Amino acid sequence: MSAAVLSRSRPAARSEPAAGKPRRGRGRVLVARLDDAGDVLLAGPAVRAVREGAREVVMLAGPHGKAAAELLPGVDRVIEWRAPWIDHDPPAVDIDRVSELVQRVRGVDEALILTSFHQSALPLALVLRLAGVRRIAAISNDYPGSLLDVRHVVDESQDVPEAERMLARRRAAGFELPAGDDGRLAVRRPLPDMSRDIGQALSAGAVAGKGAYVVVHPGTTAPARSWPAERHRQTVRELADDGHQVVVTGKERELTAFVAHKVAVDLGGRTTFAQLAAVIEGASVLVAGNTGPAHLAAAVGTPVVSLFAPVVPAARWAPYGVPVVLLGDQQAPCRASRARLCPVPGHPCLSEVTSEQVVKAVRELAQ
Question: Structure pTM?
Fold first, then answer.
């Protein structure tokens, strides 16, 4: 079973030529990232670069990414819209829904469309053109015609970390990070104070300072990325036996209750996204799959034990800019399939990961 310790940080700027220097007060700029919370968090460095050159930044996000968009530094306003070509549960294409978005984005001067390598920016570019947006930038290896003003072409066979891929796009559009910005993930401050809530729940009335506990987040948005609930529960028990206090988080209350099982603090269904960020920030380590809270941990500087199914490349989507222990067979048959349901009987890429491996990885990262 493969396990790797990663320390991920942004390298020197890539060599794509910028399309002119940004001007402060350049106007109202829309940044679009229409998928999940983790994807929106990975867009954060690009958003900060746009904010440096724009008078106002409007973030266009889907329903699964809105809370993350509201937590990004540099975002002035968030528009929520479910995209039929991106959302996991896509609505029908409807002229009234499209017309609604056209009306809501009127007054935008420029747009930067952020997509993953398997998504197209062109449907949204068409809608933005109908709304009168004068300058639109995006990655498009397909011919965009008059839909894009800044077309960024990349070699998609190269697995570049998603945060860096989006940073390259903002650079091609002529936006630069502020001086002193290291390009890592970040969240808006201050976060809610969760120290009293956590401290009262921990054993012996412990103070919930940084590193007082380990967070285990068992849920994922895609079953193919899930580690078995029974294995999570066993890990919580073994972490407690190893001397760690454990907090279990997630939206699925039945799942978190099962995993916590009177051994850990169960916060299932009891935190907003901002509160979850504060809880994770106080942890020594987060244990999670390839899901939004793993990127939230990167944004607050908490190391991650990543139970990573290779249905998407870890080189692109592993937690960015923090120490990571990557567990899971990255060469399993499901590799690069982008499957949401495991295509291989027995889910071997993750089911073969043991609780002992996770406890060992937590011990390494918590030192």
Answer: 0.90
